[in-house]
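Sequence dictates fold. Below is an illustrative record:

_____
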Amino acid sequence: MHADFVLHQGVLRRPDQHCAWRRLERVDGRGRGTLLLLHGAGVAGELTWGAMVGYLDAWRTLLIPDLRGMGQTHDPDHGERPFELDAVVGDVLALLDAQGAERLTVVGYSFGGLVAMRLKQCLGERIDGLGLLEPALLERADHAAMVEVRRDYAEAARHLRDAADPGAGIGAFLDLIAPHRTRNPRAERLSHRRLARRPLGFANALDCVTRAVHQFDREALLAAQRNVLSLVGGNSLEAMKRYHAALDGTRDDWCFAEVPGTDHSLPFQKPRRIGELLVAHRSAC
């Protein structure tokens, strides 16, 4: 844990889910408000945000849950069951109420970015701003292309679920989400290690997003967003960068920044730079 914070942690027990959370409070009392940090599919809260928290000095409180299927959050019997997006959102809403977080900023990475957008759609002005790091559902402008590519993600999820070794499914996912990554052997090993911790939960999260592509009206979801900073890796999909740049160009409440030298693993690759961008956006608002 970072020395600037006091750590509180616990488990919120819901009827169908035990939700693990960590709350960091600044020792010096600097900053204001609460920042909710939502990780991506296949990873967990502390693993994703631990290297970044020291650079997030615009906020006094950092709230970091583990989402369904990941980290220390689990079904009461420790089974791995499919889940829907609104079940994940319901977990986070219950945690916010339990923590007394009345007004907050939300940062979401990948799957967590989709959760963040749905939270904003549900909570409205209770969320004063969003940081979206390569959020799910916003990988491409063309919805038909999104539907098509999700079939490949569903196949990766099948490999994760059915194969004795999850490596093939993890490799298929990485090839889809970060086809232009450096493929440095050490980085590849780290990515595989991160994503192999709960392969069935990872598969369920991928399938959750695939269903959300069909279930949710993306334009209505986008219309609900306000005061957004979206970040995309410099080595990530050109289609994603073009789409986020177009959102920046057509909306006065949307700012887009490319993070050079990163791909979809951007919070792990450049935590300091991303923290600085989030703080600068907060200061400018």
About this structure: Residues 5-140+219-284 form a domain with the Rossmann fold fold (CATH 3.40.50.1820). Residues 143-162 form the longest helix (20 residues). The two ends are 29 Å apart (CA to CA).
